[in-house]
Amino acid sequence: MTRTLICIGLVFAVLLGFGPAFVHAGIVNLASNNSTVQIDTSTQVGVHQWTVDGIDYLAKQWFWYRIGDTGPEYSFDSLAPVGSGVQIIDPTEAVLYYTNGSGMNVDVDIRLTGMAPGSGQADLTEQLKFTNTSASAMNLRFFQYCDFDLSNGLDTVQFLTPNYVIQQSGGGVNVVESLVNNHPQYHQAALVPVLLNNLNDGGTTTLNNANGPFIGDASWAFQWNFTVQPNGGTFTITKIKVLTVVPEPASIALLCLGGIAGCGLYWIRKRGR
Q1: How far out from the chain centre does Cα 164 lie?
Q2: What's the rounded mean pLDDT across residues 91-103?
Q3: Residue 138's CATH number
Q4: How far is CA 13 from CA 88, 112, 131, 214, 273, in A?
Q5: Is residue 9 part of a domain?
């Protein structure tokens, strides 16, 4: 009975604006205007079911890491949750908390911004913060994998600017992801399931900087190589995806630039809280 009352109280606190709620790791749902997204924090399904005006465009986006230059990669769902694992900020934003138990902590802040119903537009902003609580420097290799399904396996994926801007398009839909800070060192576009197999095969993966275009059931990935200093050192990655249905030819770049500016202002304001 006591546990039930606590859970009910947390829900009402969020609804009434009294503060964020903490929930157990598992399925997290975000919603904003014309868009929803689902996050499975405990399996490689990861971020998926990104709908815009009722249509689902995202099969899978998830994260892998490796410590050092050799050895296999591990997906974030293999990490232990910190505390309850997920903090719900509001219906549009959640923060996932992970640790490897040996000094690496990762906070994944995901924020959904939907637009007016019928507009065919939505943004997904993500900030990942790596913290090293150990007494030694930590050399991390971090991977983001994305598989959008825009036009029944006939998508085109291409890096417009290597290690900075990627575009996937098909069926009158465009997805552009841009890096706001700390650009990756490597990238790769490929047909499914090449990249996912590489990340899960138990070997050492280094992306090969293939720009594309690849046409078909396409996917893509980024790879960051960085060192996090000991005793509380941090490394932060901020990026934004802009999804647009049937845009004007020149609008993709404008939406992307506008999204970057908005994303930067959001994180600046957030840090100032």
Answers
A1: 15
A2: 97
A3: 2.70.98.10
A4: 11, 21, 29, 47, 20
A5: no
